[in-house]
Amino acid sequence: MIGMVCISREDANLLVVSEKGYGKRSDLRLPNHTSGGKGVKTINVTEKTGKLVAIKEVVDKDDLMIINNQASVLELAVEELRVMVEQLKESG
Q1: Which residues make Cβ contacts (< 8 Å) with residue 13, sequence separation at least 6?
Q2: What pLDDT, in 10s, does the model give residues 13-70?
Q3: Residue 8 and residue 41: Cα distance in Å, rounded?
Q4: N or C, which terminus of the chain has less Cβ within 10 Å?
């Protein structure tokens, strides 16, 4: 577990970032699960992506500043990141 986010803004999305520079911005409007549900997986952790290192609540008007181990700085607007909408499959 890398963290927990309490959603405070209705228009928020979830942003996760991996140690190898991969990220994903996900829509937070998720379907209701029945008891025994397994939740929603936001990103696959693989050797290519590396472990997750950050989880944040973001909205379009936010800006990101990401600094890597070599002190390189990447600045970008959240609105530039496309929002992924998951197609959930029924397990059974």
Answers
A1: 25, 26, 27, 28, 57, 58, 59, 78, 83
A2: 999 989 888 888 988 776 666 666 666 677 888 999 999 999 999 999 999 888 878 8
A3: 21
A4: C
At 39 the pLDDT is 65
SS3 category, 79? helix
The whole-angstrom separation of Cα 87 and Cα 31 is 10
For the chain, helix, strand, coil in percent to 5 are 5, 35, 65
User: Quick one: tokens of 14?
Assistant: 């979830």
CA 6/CA 17 separation, integer angstroms: 17
Dihedral through CA 89, CA 50, CA 20, CA 58, nearest 10? 50
Locate 15 and state its tokens. Answer: 């942003």
Burial string for 48-74 (b: 16+ CB within 10 Å, else e) reads: ebeebeeebebeeebebeeeeeeeeee
State the Rg of the chain over Cα.
14
